[in-house]
Amino acid sequence: MNGPSASPPAPQGSEEPAARAVALPPTTPPAGAVLPPRAPEAPAPGTLLGSHYDHCFGCGPQHPQGLQLTAVAGEGLDVTAEFTVRPSHQGGPGLAHGGVLVTAMDETLGTLNWLLHAAAVTGRLETDFVRPVPVDAVLHIRAWVTGVHGRKIYSAAEGRIGGPDGPVAIRAQALFVQVKLEHFTTHGRPEDIKKAMDDPDLFKRARAFEVNP
Ligand SMILES: CCCCCCCC(=O)SCCNC(=O)CCNC(=O)[C@H](O)C(C)(C)COP(=O)(O)OP(=O)(O)OC[C@H]1O[C@@H](n2cnc3c(N)ncnc32)[C@H](O)[C@@H]1OP(=O)(O)O
Predict the structure, then answer these.
(1) Which of 34, 42, 60, 117 is 20 to 30 A removed from 144 (C-alpha atoms)?
(2) What is the C-alpha separation between 70 and 109, in angstroms, rounded?
(3) Ligand 1: centre distance to CA 121 (Å)
(4) Other beta carbons within 10 Å of 207
């Protein structure tokens, strides 16, 4: 793997803080990135995008503590999604945990891959927490592709509370990297991979998403 790497921090006092900072790659598309059309196989605008895996913490309907996030395909390379914050998602009393909100953004950004018909995983995800999100609130998320460069898919999202046009509570930018089915079969826990592969629907869907970089 040739992805960016971060060196462990230098021993304390040995370097200026700036010299120890890690140069992370940007999540904004580089020169030469393109905005491709929707894939011919992309679900029609308005389609409720099903879960990619029943046990997914982000979207799986069979994950009792998960986010059970639901997303709908937009007109272009965009999706909308809703996530209702439940008591099991608390960080501070009565407030959503920041990491859970990041999961909601990650999952929604991940659903953009349906529109490109490409299997991809998150390589980098940046988040701004703008305002606290209470338990019982619905986070209204919109995500869109900002560019594609080789196997890299750049995207952005914002989450609002109090309604789809309410104030922004969280913003995110991400870089996903397209992968082949082997990414999952090689690295996933064998018993879970076997169960998933034995499910004809899931297997068909996974195969349909295979990419040939
Ligand atoms: C089925 C969909 C599920 C969706 C669930 C919601 C989304 C998720 O949470 S996915 C789970 C979290 N993500 C992961 O577990 C990914 C873990 N990381 C990996 O497996 C690998 O590092 C992976 C696949 C990202 C990249 O590895 P690899 O395929 O070898 O790619 P590699 O050849 O190194 O890099 C390809 C390009 O991407 C860039 N890149 C790779 N990783 C990163 C990164 N982390 N940040 C920025 N750029 C990166 C490289 O610089 C390279 O760019 P260029 O083409 O310009 O040279």
Answers:
(1) 60
(2) 12
(3) 6
(4) 10
- 145, 122 in Cβ contact below 8 A? no
Domain range for 76: 33-178
Residue 84 belongs to domain with CATH number: 3.10.129.10
Q: Which amino acid is at 92?
A: G
Residue 75 lies in a domain: yes
Residue 14 within a domain: no
Could you tell me if residue 25 is inside a domain?
no
pTM across the whole model: 0.91
CB 124 within 8 A of CB 130: no
DSSP letter for each residue of 119-162: -EEEEEEEEEE-S--BTTPEEEEEEEEEEEETTEEEEEEEEESS
pLDDT digit string (tens) for 72-118? Answer: 999 999 999 999 999 999 999 999 999 999 999 999 999 999 999 99
- Tell me whether residue 2 is in a domain: no
73 residue type, one letter:
A
